[in-house]
Amino acid sequence: MKRLFPEQVDNYAVLTTSELIESVRRVSLVLEREAALRFSFSIDGLALEAAGSEQAQAQETIEAHLHGEDTVVSLKPSFLLDALQAVHSEFVRISFTKTENPNKPGPVLITSQSSKDQPGADNYRYLLQPNLLLR
């Protein structure tokens, strides 16, 4: 269990919970039922991208405070929304764990944040396995 929930992750982003929820809902409207959203975290913020059928596409950028290196993950929006709706704080931290295989992304760890700089006081932790990115 400790291996799945690391004590410290150096690569993470802090976002406003409500802004992320609304953005995921809007961008995922063009997706097929089981498709995943592409999340690109950088110093400029978070870019969400969705490519649906019939040339339908959506893209949006929101503010994110990244600590560590640029990261791209692909997540199913329904699972992410479940996790975010259980976060009862203004901010949320999305941490990017690593695996032994550099080609396989580690689970994304979602926790609450009291402020942009302060972790949440609760013990809420949610692991979400990213989809493999299609290059």
From TrEMBL:
Residue ranges of every copy of the DNA polymerase III beta sliding clamp C-terminal domain listed in the record: 2-102
Record protein name field: DNA polymerase III beta sliding clamp C-terminal domain-containing protein
Protein localization: Cytoplasm
Sequence segments annotated as region (Disordered): 98-123
Residue stretches spanning the membrane: none
InterPro entries assigned to the protein according to its UniProt record, in alphabetical order: DNA_clamp_sf (IPR046938), DNA_polIII_beta (IPR001001), DNA_polIII_beta_C (IPR022635)
Keyword tags: Cytoplasm, DNA replication, DNA-binding, DNA-directed DNA polymerase, Nucleotidyltransferase, Transferase
SUPFAM superfamilies: DNA clamp (SSF55979)
Protein family (similarity comment): Belongs to the beta sliding clamp family.
Species assigned in the record: Pseudolysinimonas kribbensis
